[in-house]
Specification:
The protein has about 300 residues and is of the alpha+beta class. The chain is built from 13 helices and 9 strands. A 4-stranded antiparallel β-sheet has the order 1-2-3-4, with no helix packed on it. A 3-stranded antiparallel β-sheet has the order 5-7-8, covered by helices on one side. Helix 8 (about 165-180) packs parallel to helix 13 (about 295-309) and helix 9 packs across helix 11.
């Protein structure tokens, strides 16, 4: 349906490599101001000005209507447009914006916007260390990674709550954090579970645990001269600051937070910063004890200490 050149055009627009000129933006404003736009077409609107034929082709494409931009990524295009079996797609919302989960017999992937400028780098290191989901080819501004099937730690099935299982999960989380810390990566959100039942730990059938989502992780190789983005990510995971920012942080709030925390973080050693990951584990275990049962705490800690220390 689409030529290689057209696919490249779409990918360049989605990744931001193709910027619209002021005259092109003006065309869009004149054409669409105040008019409803189908949600699936919003990412492709620029083609009305740059390539009207491609705009028309996408607007009449039933698969584009179903998959929108997510059908044009390097790892999804062939299974969306070149397979007899249509992949399933579901959407999740959160701090990142819209995240797509695409499942197909050939592969299961997650496509999500990056949360910080070094997330691809950190996620790649996690793959090298064999502690994070496999990273596929992607577009600038996004991650495309393996979708890990399993249960969130906070919602474990009964058979996974045994003493032996918790010991193995504790060992795995200790091993993951030790390896990340050895590469000066502060995960910054080691959420076993919180009071809302969220978690960044998945327990698959074939592996004891996976720590996913490196959106606020910080690589400390430039410490103490961290970027404003890194200082912000450090500060935002404190509950009181997260509440202050709410769901729509303004530039003024972000700037104030960075200005407040920059001198604080400069006074901390790398070890002190990284040590906060361990505080997250302790805090998460307390919530997990309430949600899952206090019997999990002792075997988890036993396993964690054996591999981390």
């Amino acid at each position: 349906m689409y030529t290689e050149q057209e696919v490249n055009e779409v990918q360049d627009l989605l990744s931001g490599k193709r910027k619209l000129s002021e005259p092109e933006i003006k065309i869009l404003q004149e054409q669409f101001a105040g008019k409803p736009i189908p949600d699936f077409m919003a990412p492709f609107l620029g083609f009305f000005a740059t390539n009207p034929n491609l705009y028309k082709k996408i607007s009449g494409d039933k698969r584009a209507e179903k998959y929108s931009l997510f059908g044009f990524f390097p790892e999804s295009f062939d299974i969306v447009y070149g397979s007899e079996t249509s992949p399933q797609i579901s959407f999740q919302g959160g701090n990142r914006g819209i995240v797509a989960v695409i499942k197909h017999p050939a592969k299961n992937i997650v496509i999500k916007p990056v949360q910080n400028s070094r997330e691809n780098e950190v996620a790649g290191i996690a793959v090298e260390l064999e502690v994070g989901p496999f990273q596929y080819r992607t577009l600038d501004g996004f991650l495309t990674e393996q979708f890990v099937e399993g249960d969130l730690f906070s919602r474990l099935k009964e058979e996974k709550k045994s003493r032996d299982s918790m010991y193995l999960v504790g060992r795995r989380i200790g091993d993951i954090l030790k390896k990340l810390h050895s590469r000066e990566i502060y995960y910054n959100d080691t959420m076993l579970t919180d009071d809302f039942g969220r978690s960044h730990v998945i327990v698959p059938e074939t592996l004891s645990a996976v720590l996913f989502d490196y959106g606020v992780a910080i690589r400390l190789d430039n410490h103490p001269n961290l970027s404003g983005e890194e200082v912000f990510n450090y500060a935002r995971t404190f509950p009181v600051e997260n509440m202050f920012l709410s769901l729509t942080p303004t530039k003024e709030k972000i700037d104030a937070l960075v200005q407040n925390y920059r001198p604080k973080i400069k006074r901390l050693t790398k070890e002190q910063i990284i040590g906060r990951d361990l505080d997250f584990v302790d805090e998460g275990l307390r919530f997990a004890g309430i949600r899952i049962g206090n019997h999990i705490i002792e075997p988890f800690l036993k396993g964690f200490k054996e591999t981390y220390f």
